[in-house]
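Task: fold both queries, return tokens.
Query 1:
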Amino acid sequence: MKRLNPETGKPFKAGDKREDGYVFQNYQLQKIKDNGYFQELWISSSTRKKRELTARKRHIKKKEFAKNNPGKRRLNQKTGKEFKLGDYVDGRYFLSYNNRYVRLDGYMPEIWGNWETFHRFKIKSLKVNAHYRAKKEGYKSDLTIDYLLDIFPKDFKCPALGIKMEWGNKKGTRTSPSLDKINPDKGYMKGNVAIISLKANSIKSDATPKEVIKVAKWLEEIS
């Protein structure tokens, strides 16, 4: 069990300070004290600063090396081309190349994950794009990754068209999940968004329900 921060009533976070100046690092989940709480790792402010400085120097050194020695990108043996987001190999999904560092063999490190990690990665993209569009429109979106995961259709079916949605590798894949503003005037806010297929989103666009119905009736008449 995690001991709570008396000031916040929540578990301690990395960086929280005690009265004696020591800084919280993490809970030692593999070690449980006699009182049932996880052991905690606290270090002095000076030690923390030294560690941060060392890590910063190491990061800069790796970044400089990668800048002067651009690494090669390993290719997907099935396609003969560079890996793309979502490529599935040996039970893992490709997320990205890490172009900040270069391995000893001269290749860029790769970031892979399981299905949950890949799904969360794509949801994060929806959130980031929504925040970007909201900022351009002059307001701050309150969407979070966890909120979008919660409203995502559990059966992966588009709520509007009933078709199966799937994350596509190519931009603009019609069955890909997309974020829709239910009421265009209210923006990308909690309670005003739904995740539907790109195809349904394209049909809806910024039209009102009545306008969509009118278009549908017109199509039926001319078909």
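Query 1 returned. Query 2:
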Amino acid sequence: MLHQGDAVEFLAKLPPESIDCVVTDPAYESLEKHRAKGTTTRLKHSDASSNDWFSIFPNSRFPELFAQLYRVMARNSHLYFYCDSETMFIAKPLGEAAGFKFWKPIVWDKQRIGMGYHYRSRCEFILFFERGKRKLNSLGTPDILDGADSPVINAARVLRGYPTEKPVSVSRVLIEQSTQPGEWVCDPFMGSGSVGEAAVVAGRKFAGNDLSAKSLEITKGRLISDDELGRIGF
């Protein structure tokens, strides 16, 4: 199931407790600050927003986002929320206020440093929230995802891809930790559809949304090329 529109409005249309896991990467506000200082200069400028690829989702909307996420997620389920070190301190208490239990930040080691200033960033955080109580499928997975503990994980930063694109293999680890085959995975900020690809390759069903028509086009093409169109509801 793929949809184009506002993330919160998309979630509001889903039935209560219908999603088994959420893996998502909102276009958080601090991306604008980093871009202004030259750390994400590859994002193309437009008059409508800071770039031609996606619109920034303001921090002020996090409360309504977390409220809808809590509503649509199953009673025993996991939420994975990609963010940077600045947004982490904003998102964590708001997720908890919505009813989620926060466990810890998982570190994604990108293998390569990015552009920047001060200490150059080589990692990103994935906030691990829980609704209810659900056991992970494996207790042997570390909280640093860098590929060192599994030869099948390519955790390196995606180069020359969609802006802020995440590796399929990293999202697949999260999905396979927190769901069973046939369960629903959702990404309301799907971008180029890497979480969707991870979900369908792992045998899960996928519900994805993005505000960008380009995102929808890329995601459809990506999943069609993987011969997964029928498995996502088209």
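Both queries returned. Flag for query 2: The chain is about 30% helix and 20% strand.
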